[in-house]
Write a structure and sequence with these properties.
heterodimer, A: alpha+beta, D-amino Acid Aminotransferase, Chain A, domain 1, OB fold (Dihydrolipoamide Acetyltransferase, E2P), seven-stranded mixed sheet, seven-stranded antiparallel sheet, 19 helices, B: alpha/beta, 25% strand, globular, ligase (chain A), DNA recombination (chain A), ATP_dep_DNA_lig_pp_1105_fam (chain A)
C-alpha cells in the first residue's frame, strides 16, 4: 500500500506528462503482482467500495481526537481525507509491517456496511500517514491525481512496448488485478483473448493538414466531409450487447440511455455524438456538455437535450469486418446501413463535393452550419487503421477566432517553467467608452515560443504592481500595458466567470508589442460572437 | 500554587518586555528582538540571534555562526557558554543544555532556590548527525516553541525522505535535483543524511550556503565532496544541488538541466503547501519537533506550567489544558510582533 501511496503523492505533484509516464512505468516494473494490478484498477477507476462513506471517516477521527484540536487541524489543512490521515494516532498497530495493496483491497471488498468502521479503523492504524490518505481516497472513490485512464493505458503500452490501441482494444475484456495483461506485457505469456462482448475497436485518427501537404495531394484521391463539433464515438451493437465508447475506449453507455435504446442493429459505427434531432436541429458543443460526465440522466434532460449520432464510417456490419475495405466501399455500405436506422437518432455525415483545394478552402471558411469546425479529408482507397497513420486522413480546421486582450496577471509555471511567469490571465475592456475597466476573460499558458516566454517573463517582472503568493498583478491601463492576441476555438456561456463567457482552448497567438492597450477589444465583441454561436 | 519558604516563584524568573524575555534578577534577555545590554542567545538563526547587543553569551558555535553572518563586531563583547556548565548571573544560576536544533543550539535553564525555568529556543528530538542531541531538563516551567504545533504535523523518519530523494534521482537521471533548504542547519543535515544513505557524488551548493558548510566541516562534521554551483561551474545533468528555498524557483535555477524542484521542510507535510510552491518532490525533513515530540517533551520535562511561543500556540495550549498542565501563549503578553 505504501508504494502505491507514494506513487499517488508523486503523480499529483509531477506536472509533465512524460514525468507521470515515467513514474507509472517504474511502478509497473518494480511492484509485484497482484499489487500493481490493483494499483492500475485504482488509477483507471475500476474499484468501488460502496460500504465506505466519507462521513464515516470524520466520525472515526472524532472518536480519537479532541474536537477542538480536530477543528484546528481541519481548518489548517482544508481537506478532510488529508486531515484524518495526519491526525490519526500512530503506534496503534501490533503488526511490524504495513499491509500490501492486495490485502487492503481484499479487506475493503469484504467490508459490509456494518463492519466498515472496524475495517477502516484497523487499516488506518496499520498504515503511515501517506498510506492512510491513499486508502481513504481509494475507499471513498476519486484519487484525483491528474492522471487520466488514457494516460495510464499509454504507460502500460510503453511498459510493454505495444501500441496503446492494443491496450484499448483489450481493455473491456480484462478485470483487476490484470495478472494476464502484465504477463503478456512482460513477454511471459500470450496476449489475453478479447473476452468482452461488443468490444471497442481502436479508432482511426487524422493528422492536421499542413500548408506544404497540398502540393503533393490530388483532390481526386480524397473525399471531404464536414468535421462536426461534438465528441467522436464508436457505437457497438453485437449479439444483443450495446455499448457506446468514447474515442479512447471508455464505455459511456450509461450516460446515454436514450441512444442505447435505439441501437437496434448488428454492427459497429464510427460517428460524432451531437445534441438535437438530425432532421431539425444540431446543438452546439455547449449543449452537449450538459450530457457529458454524468452517472445518471434526468428525464427532463433527456427531453431537453436528446443525443444522436452523425455517422462517419462502418467498421462491422452483421458479423462482417469491413475495416480492411477501401473507404469508398465502406462509405457505400454505410449509406445503406444508416438508411435503415431510426432517423431521429442516426444520420449520415454528408460529403462535401469539391473540385480543387481552393474551392474546398472557400467552403471550409463559410460552413453551412455553426457546429462545423472544419473539414475532414479521407483517401478514397484507405483502409480503417488503428491510431494516427500519416497520409490517409487529414483534418483541416476552421481558422480560430482571435481577440486582442490585455495582460493582467501572471503566475509562475511548474516543472521546467517554475522560474518563469508562464500562466497569463488577460482581460478585455468593459464599462463606459470613456472610462473603461479591464474584465478578465481567460487564462493561457501556451502558444508562445521559448524566446517569447523569456520576453513575457521579463515584462512581468519589470511591470509588477502587486504580488499575491505566486501571482503577480501587472500594470495594465489605457496607455500602459501589453496586448496579447488570443486565439480560441469557441465561446461558452459561463456562470462561474464574472465576464459571463468562457473560451475554449485559448492560447497566445501573437505578442502585440506595437498595439496600445486602449485599442484592445471590448467585452461586447465576445458577447456578439457568443450570440452568433448560440443564435443559429 | 504554594512555594516553600526560600523557594523562588518560578514565574518571577522571566518576564516579557518589548525586547523579549527578560530575567529581572540577572538583568539579561533571551533571544531579544532589539539591541539590549546583555543577551543570552539559544542558536544562530537570524530571528533569534541579532546583532548589536552590548554583550552576548552563547555556545562557541553560536558565537562563530553570528560572526560569520554579521561580521566579527556583531556585539560589544562575547562570552562562550559551555554546555552543562552552571554560572551565576546576578541572583540566578544559568546553564546551557543542547537543543538538537542546529549546530550549537542550546536550551537555557534559569534557576533560583530550587525553582527552574527552561527556555528551549527551537528544538527537535529526531536524530541529527550534525548536532548534539536534545537533553531533557526537568523544570517547573517549560517554554516551548510551537512551529509545528498542530496534530497534523508528524514528521516521518528523515532517512525515509532521503530514500525518496535518491529514488527520484534514479528515476529522473537527466534532471538536476534542486533541494531548497535553509542555509543554517537544514542544508548541512540534508548533506550529512545523503552521505549516510550512501550518496558519494559531489553535491553542489548555492553561494549562500558555502561559508556555513565550511564552518560545519571545520567543526569535524563530514559533508563529503562539495562544489559551488556557479554558471561557470555548472553541475552535470542529474546532479544534486542545495540552495536556499527562495532560489529554487527563481531565475538562479535556470542554469541547470531541466531542474526538478524539491524542498526540505516540515511544511511539506501539507500537500497544498507543496502544490502552491510548485514543489515536485516535497521532503518532510524538519529541524523542529513535530506534534508528538512537542507533547512528549512537555511530559518528560515534568513542567507544571508551559509557555508556548512562535507558532500555533492555541492547539498546544489546548492539549496542555486537556492533560492538566497549565499553559499560556506568550504572544498574549506582548510577543505579537515577534518575527518568525
Amino acid at each position: 500500500m505504501e508504494r502505491f501511496a507514494e506513487l499517488l503523492d508523486r503523480l499529483v505533484l509531477t506536472p509533465s506528462r512524460n514525468g507521470k509516464l515515467r513514474l507509472l512505468i517504474d511502478y509497473f516494473r518494480t511492484e509485484p503482482d497482484p499489487n500493481r494490478g490493483w494499483g492500475l484498477a485504482g488509477l483507471t477507476g475500476g474499484l468501488d467500495f460502496p460500504a465506505i462513506k466519507p462521513a464515516l471517516l470524520r466520525t472515526l477521527a472524532m472518536e480519537r481526537l479532541d474536537p477542538v484540536l480536530f477543528a484546528y487541524s481541519y481548518d489548517y489543512v482544508g481537506d478532510l481525507a488529508e486531515t484524518v490521515s495526519l491526525v490519526w494516532p500512530t503506534g496503534q498497530s501490533r503488526r511490524n509491517s504495513t499491509p500490501s495493496l492486495d490485502e487492503v483491497v481484499h479487506r475493503l471488498m469484504a467490508a459490509s456496511r456494518s463492519d466498515a468502521p472496524a475495517v477502516m479503523s484497523e487499516l488506518l492504524d496499520e498504515l503511515t500517514p501517506s498510506g492512510r490518505y491513499a486508502v481513504i481516497k481509494l475507499a471513498t472513490g476519486g484519487l484525483r491525481v491528474g492522471v487520466s485512464a488514457r494516460l495510464t493505458k499509454q504507460a502500460l503500452a510503453d511498459f510493454g512496448n505495444v501500441p496503446v490501441e492494443e491496450i484499448e482494444e483489450l481493455w473491456h475484456g480484462l478485470a483487476p488485478p490484470f495478472t494476464e495483461l502484465f504477463r503478456w506485457l512482460e513477454g511471459q505469456g500470450p496476449r489475453p483473448a478479447s473476452a468482452a462482448l461488443a468490444p471497442f475497436r481502436p479508432v482511426m485518427l487524422s493528422n492536421a493538414i499542413g500548408e506544404n501537404d497540398f502540393a503533393s495531394l490530388d483532390p481526386a484521391d480524397y473525399a471531404a466531409e464536414w468535421k462536426w463539433d461534438g465528441i467522436r464515438v464508436q457505437v457497438v451493437s453485437e449479439k444483443g450487447v450495446r455499448r457506446l465508447y468514447s474515442r479512447t475506449g471508455d464505455d459511456i453507455s450509461g450516460a446515454f440511455p436514450d441512444l442505447v435504446e435505439h441501437m437496434n442493429f448488428e454492427g459497429v459505427i464510427d460517428g460524432e455524438l451531437l445534441v438535437g434531432n438530425p432532421r431539425e436541429r444540431t446543438g452546439t458543443f455547449a449543449d452537449l456538455q450538459k450530457r457529458l460526465n454524468r452517472k445518471t440522466v434526468s428525464k427532463a434532460l433527456l427531453r431537453e437535450a436528446p443525443v444522436f449520432v452523425r455517422c462517419y464510417d462502418l467498421l462491422v456490419a452483421g458479423d462482417e469486418d469491413l475495416r480492411a475495405l477501401p473507404w469508398a466501399e465502406r462509405r457505400t455500405r454505410l449509406e445503406a446501413f444508416v438508411a435503415a436506422l431510426p432517423p431521429n437518432r442516426f444520420d449520415l455525415s454528408p460529403l462535401v463535393p469539391y473540385g480543387s483545394w481552393e474551392e474546398l478552402n472557400r467552403l471550409r471558411c463559410n460552413p453551412p452550419h455553426p457546429v462545423i469546425e472544419g473539414v475532414m479529408l479521407k483517401r478514397r482507397d484507405s483502409a480503417y487503421l488503428a491510431g494516427r497513420p500519416k497520409g490517409p486522413w487529414f483534418k483541416w480546421k476552421r481558422d480560430p477566432h482571435t481577440v486582442d486582450a490585455v495582460l493582467m496577471y501572471a503566475q509562475r509555471g511548474h516543472g521546467k517553467r517554475s522560474s518563469f511567469y508562464s500562466d497569463f490571465t488577460f482581460g478585455v475592456w468593459t464599462g463606459p467608452e470613456d472610462d473603461p475597466v479591464l474584465m478578465p476573460v481567460g487564462k493561457a499558458y501556451f502558444g508562445f515560443t521559448d524566446e517569447e516566454l523569456r520576453q513575457l517573463d521579463k515584462y512581468v517582472r519589470d511591470n509588477t504592481i502587486e504580488r499575491f503568493g505566486p501571482v503577480r498583478s501587472v500594470r495594465a491601463d489605457l496607455n500602459h500595458g501589453l496586448v496579447l492576441e488570443i486565439a480560441f476555438e469557441g465561446l461558452n456561456r459561463s456562470t462561474r466567470h464574472k465576464s459571463g463567457v468562457a473560451m475554449r482552448f485559448p492560447r497566445i497567438s501573437r505578442l502585440r508589442w506595437d498595439k496600445p492597450p486602449h485599442e484592445a477589444d471590448r467585452l461586447e465583441t465576445l458577447e456578439r460572437l457568443l450570440q452568433d454561436e448560440l443564435g443559429s | 500554587m504554594h512555594y516553600l519558604d526560600g523557594m523562588a516563584e518560578p514565574r518571577s524568573l522571566l518576564r516579557l518586555r518589548p525586547e523579549g524575555l527578560w530575567c529581572p534578577e540577572g538583568d539579561f534577555y533571551i533571544d531579544p528582538i532589539r539591541p539590549v545590554p546583555r543577551a543570552l542567545i539559544t542558536h544562530g538563526h537570524s530571528d533569534h540571534a541579532r546583532s548589536g547587543h552590548g554583550s552576548v553569551l552563547a555556545t562557541r558555535e553560536t558565537l562563530d555562526i553570528m560572526a560569520i553572518r554579521y561580521g566579527g563586531s556583531f556585539a560589544g563583547s562575547t562570552e562562550e557558554a559551555r554546555l552543562g556548565e552552571a554560572r551565576t548571573i546576578g541572583g540566578v544560576t544559568v546553564t546551557f543544555h543542547p537543543a538538537g536544533h542546529v549546530l550549537g543550539s542550546a536550551q537555557i535553564a534559569i534557576e533560583k532556590h530550587g525553582a527552574r525555568i527552561v527556555a528551549s529556543g527551537d528544538y527537535k528530538r529526531e536524530r541529527d548527525p550534525t548536532c548534539a542531541p536534545f537533553e531533557v531538563v526537568p523544570c517547573d516551567i517549560f517554554i516551548t516553541e510551537a512551529t509545528f504545533g498542530l496534530p497534523v504535523f508528524c514528521h516521518p523518519p528523515a532517512a525515509e525522505e532521503i530514500r525518496r530523494l535518491l529514488d527520484s534521482m534514479r528515476q529522473f537521471p537527466e534532471r538536476t535535483h534542486i533541494v531548497g533548504a535553509y542555509a543554517l542547519g537544514k542544508a548541512q543535515r540534508l548533506i550529512a543524511l545523503a552521505r549516510e544513505a550512501g550518496y558519494t557524488e559531489t553535491i553542489y551548493l548555492h553561494g549562500a550556503l558555502i561559508r556555513l558548510c565550511d564552518y560545519y566541516r571545520s567543526r569535524g562534521i563530514d559533508l563529503g565532496p562539495l562544489e559551488p554551483a556557479t554558471s561557470e561551474n555548472a553541475p552535470p545533468a542529474g546532479a544534486l544541488v542545495i540552495a536556499p528555498p527562495s532560489a529554487v524557483d527563481d531565475r538562479w535555477s535556470r542554469r541547470f538541466a531541466d531542474p526538478l524542484a524539491s524542498f526540505a521542510s516540515g511544511w511539506m507535510r501539507i500537500r497544498q503547501r507543496a502544490k502552491q510552491r510548485g514543489v515536485e518532490l516535497p521532503l518532510i525533513i524538519s529541524d523542529h519537533s513535530d506534534w508528538n515530540d512537542l507533547t512528549a517533551t512537555i511530559r518528560e520535562t515534568g513542567a507544571e506550567e508551559v509557555w508556548v511561543t512562535h507558532g500555533r500556540e492555541e492547539a498546544l495550549v489546548r492539549w496542555c489544558e486537556l492533560n492538566g498542565i497549565r499553559a499560556r501563549p506568550l504572544h498574549l503578553a506582548g510577543y505579537e510582533d515577534e518575527a518568525e
